Amino acid sequence: MRIDEFHWERDVIIKARCQDKRSAFQLIACETSERTGIAPSVILEHLLSREAFGATGFGGGFALPHALVPKLRSPEKLLITLRQGIEFEAPDDEPVDVILAILWPQERQDGFLPALARYSRLFRTDRIRRGLRNAGSKTEAMMVLHSFSTPEVMASSRRAYLGGRKY
């Protein structure tokens, strides 16, 4: 799963209204349920269960909720920008207004941790979060995502995340 695999018509929601973390999880569950055939209550249960182990707010207004979901056929993602930030127990105590949800097949966990690592690095970049916050449409959000999907930008994001060190 790469950044250039986002599809504006189904993977991006712009300026959603969520009152709190639970309502954001409910939105994720409902939206992904429609395309996976898995009941929203099952998806919500797995998101809440994972969140109970530790908050998925990363800081800088970004959260990466994720869960392993039984009977899910393929990885699913949903990028949501919020009209107003919500409490997400992020380490910097900043409200979250950019959410990337990742759901992964429980029966096929290969690639799950590398995908989480790749997205957490990319979305910790101030420029991408700022661009997504300013996006007024799905098309604009897709332009932001694609502007960061070139190998050069991805490498630059990785170096910035690692403090300039090359590994």
Outline the secondary-structure elements.
Layout: H1 8-11, E1 12-16, H2 21-36, H3 40-53, E2 57-59, E3 62-63, E4 66-69, E5 76-86, E6 96-105, H4 112-123, H5 126-134, H6 138-147, H7 151-161
Parallel strand pairs: 1-5, 3-6, 4-6
Antiparallel strand pairs: 2-3, 5-6
Helix pairs in contact: 2-3, 5-6
Beta content: 15-25%
Low-confidence stretches: 152-167
**Terminal Cα span:** 22 Å
Q: Give me the count of strands.
A: 6
The pLDDT mean sits at: 86
**SS-derived structural category:** alpha/beta
Q: What coarse outline follows from CA principal-axis ratios?
A: globular
Helix content: 40-55%
Major sheet attributes: 6 strands, mixed
What this model shows, in words?
Mean pLDDT is 86; it is low at 152-167. The radius of gyration is 15 Å and the shape is globular. With 167 residues, the chain is an alpha/beta fold. Helix 2 (21-36) packs across helix 3 and helix 5 runs antiparallel to helix 6 (138-147). Helix content is 46%, strand content 21%. Strands 1, 2, 3, 4, 5 and 6 form a six-stranded mixed beta sheet that branches. A hairpin with a 2-residue loop joins strand 2 and strand 3 (62-63). It is built from seven helices and six strands; from the N terminus they run H-E-H-H-E-E-E-E-E-H-H-H-H.
